Amino acid sequence: MNHFTSPTDSARNILIANDRGGYTIPTSGLYPYQWNWDSAVAALGFAEFDIDRAWTELETLFSGQWDDGMLPHILFHKPDPGYFPGPDVWGGTGPIASSGVTQPPLAATMARRIWEKDPATGEDRLRALFPAMLAWHQWFMRWRLDDQGAVCTTHPWEAGRDNAPDWDGAMAGIDASDVGEYQRRDTSHVNSADRPTKYDYDRYIKLVQIGREAGWDQQQLLEKNPFRVADPTMSFTALRAAHDLLAISKELGIRAEGLSADVDRLDAGAKSLWNETLGAFDARDAHTGQWAESVSNASYLCWYAGIESQQMLDRLKTVLTTVPHPIPSYDPTSPKFDERRYWRGPTWAFMNMLAGFGLKDMGHGVEAEALRLKTGRLIAGHGFAEYYDPITGSPAGGNSFTWTAAVWLHWAGRN
């Protein structure tokens, strides 16, 4: 008798297994807490079979929001000595032990999608969440814009693309010689060749130490933090979130003054990340004005933000036909490309989904469907990995990964 489990059943089982009661961990061992943008994607997966649980995921996430509106990138709901850096290193000041930086704002966009699946059931939950989502948006507007209106990241972990080549220039300017001794835990869970290097990690910890010393005071950090990079991930996701908050406010009749003006400012800021010489959307050091010269998978989120680009579409068509398992997190023709090392080459299913949402929204249905089908085949063939080698498709990073399962349920695995 064949006890074959379908990928859809497996994906549901992963979400259920990674559920810790109101919040979902990305995967056991490697990531034992609630991560901000992972949770937003997880909620989308839950909405396919348990819409109440989807709303609970977002509500639990916002229960950790700081008084100033910042939503941390990690909420340390329960102690876990297997993870570094934990709450004792961060010294966060929110209602739940947390990190001191945020992550790309996916929550409002995912909340809108979940609400649209079942408007009657979701309306009260969405109304209750709206002020918190708006406060987070306003925090970005207050503390994270550069002089052109692009949204900056103040730590590689904040952008969510930890070791992307986009940060190499800014990271090189950080003196981490006095960071001290620490014990990494990530490389005890997965192959060190899949993870950031010690050089990177020293600088990650140094930036945490600078933030903690400043008490995570944003005004102080504007002056003290050596790392401030205007970033496509942050800029495109913040613009999309602002569009979605504006749409929700109109449909539910909620006052949200200033959102229209914010959308215009964020739109101009995101467009300012076009690097004409590179022919792609790029990251820009906010301190020096230097381009990263980096074509990443975040460059392809322009449509997600409602920004059209024929040159990016031409690039995408090339990637879809020349890279076996697109979209790689870094241009495979670049000398810095590393097919297995985290954000320096591997393909991430959830980033593909975000790009796919945007492509479909902006009328590029053929490309959206090609990307969806290729992502679906990658997951079906190689399991629910954290990310994948874009050349061979082999799984890398953590296994039984929440957001990859959610991507299958909501997008890649649909018939």
Give an overview in words.
The protein has one domain: Glycosyltransferase. Helices cover 48% and strands 4% of the residues. The model has no long low-confidence stretch (mean pLDDT 96). It has helices at 7-17, 36-46, 51-62, 87-90, 107-117, 119-143, 156-159, 168-172, 186-189, 198-213, 218-224, 232-252, 259-271, 310-322, 349-361, 365-382, 402-412; strands at 34-35, 74-75, 152-153, 229-230, 274-275, 280-281, 284-285, 387-388, 395-396. The strands form four sheets. A three-stranded antiparallel β-sheet has the order 3-4-7. Strands 1-2 form a two-stranded antiparallel sheet. A two-stranded antiparallel sheet has the order 5-6. Helix 2 (36-46) runs antiparallel to helix 3 (51-62) and helix 6 (119-143) packs across helix 12. 54% of the residues are buried. The chain is mainly α and 415 residues long.
